[in-house]
Design a protein that fits this description.
By secondary structure, this protein is an alpha+beta fold. It contains 12 helices and 14 strands. The strands form 4 sheets. The chain has a 5-stranded antiparallel beta sheet. Strands 11-12-13-14 form a 4-stranded antiparallel beta sheet, with helices on both faces. The structure holds flavin-adenine dinucleotide.
Length: 298
Amino acid sequence: MKPAPIEFFAPPQIDELLSLLAEHGESARVLAGGQSLIPLMNLRMLRPEVVVSLNNCLDLSYCRATGSHLIIGALARQIEVEDFVAVRDICPLLASALPQIGSIAIRNRGTVCGSLAHADPLAELPAVAVALDAEMLVSSSRGQRVLTASEFFVSELASAMTPEELLQEVRIPRASEYAGAAFLEICNRQHGFAVAGVGAQIVVGADGVCGETRLAAMCGGPTPVRLVRTEKLLAGQRLNEALLKEASHVAQSEVEPGDTPHADSTYCREIVGVLVERATLQAAEASRRKRLAKYDER
Ligand SMILES: Cc1cc2nc3c(=O)[nH]c(=O)nc-3n(C[C@H](O)[C@H](O)[C@H](O)COP(=O)(O)OP(=O)(O)OC[C@H]3O[C@@H](n4cnc5c(N)ncnc54)[C@H](O)[C@@H]3O)c2cc1C
């Protein structure tokens, strides 16, 4: 299928792009990697009159590490961030989640910011952003504002951005030196969207006690869910079978999955419980291995 006719712009400068978004408002859509927008337009589920591509705004193609954050610009492709070696240390949860997005062909074009702006509750990156308290730099011709991930995701496929705004960059806080992470999900088919998933990033101290613990789930609810009560239960504790079982129960009570064509809500809730146990264990193990590797180096 082909999309309905559109007026197409691909300005090289961000100011020009923001002016076009201001001029066309609700009738315009930003085109980033096109991996979600183009299928929706082809299926006539979206019918923008104007498409404003950011693919010529090369100044937006960056992924860099600062002392406090990993900063990813609007045009950075998912594969570029995946290949940025420092991501494994600075942001292990993002490094664990990225390879699970579709296939390499999708990640070659799809952008990190495009996935966040699309706000699909069953996409990996919004769950990562919520777990890690990412900040979204949103720009328009009127100026800029910074939203936290929990402010940014409003509902299914809806963010707090207005039509004239652009997600210019995402800033993800740098993880502690010994943070370990795991992003686990269940899919009905290879390279398909997940039915449910859980991301965990945990720091285990030299004494074996869980320190900073971050958990988020994606499971058919309108937005990704930060598992706050499960985090509180685990922090300050040594992991054992009974504690993991309790974490699984608490996590299941924190999510409100809806029925989807791929899985009903009961099944999704149970998957979240199982994945919380597994992701917590794997993230804690990764943290322990990091600490041991550092001791070996000394
Ligand atoms: C076969 C297939 C499998 C896939 N599997 C997965 C998967 O397993 N997990 C997953 O998470 N995703 C999956 N995707 C989607 C993929 O990750 C997309 O790349 C992503 O959702 C959107 O990124 P994009 O850069 O392609 O954005 P686009 O498709 O260009 O845009 C998506 C939406 O966001 C808006 N937008 C884009 N960038 C910005 C911006 N900077 N500011 C404001 N608005 C913006 C657009 O206007 C549009 O509404 C899959 C896609 C396909 C086709």
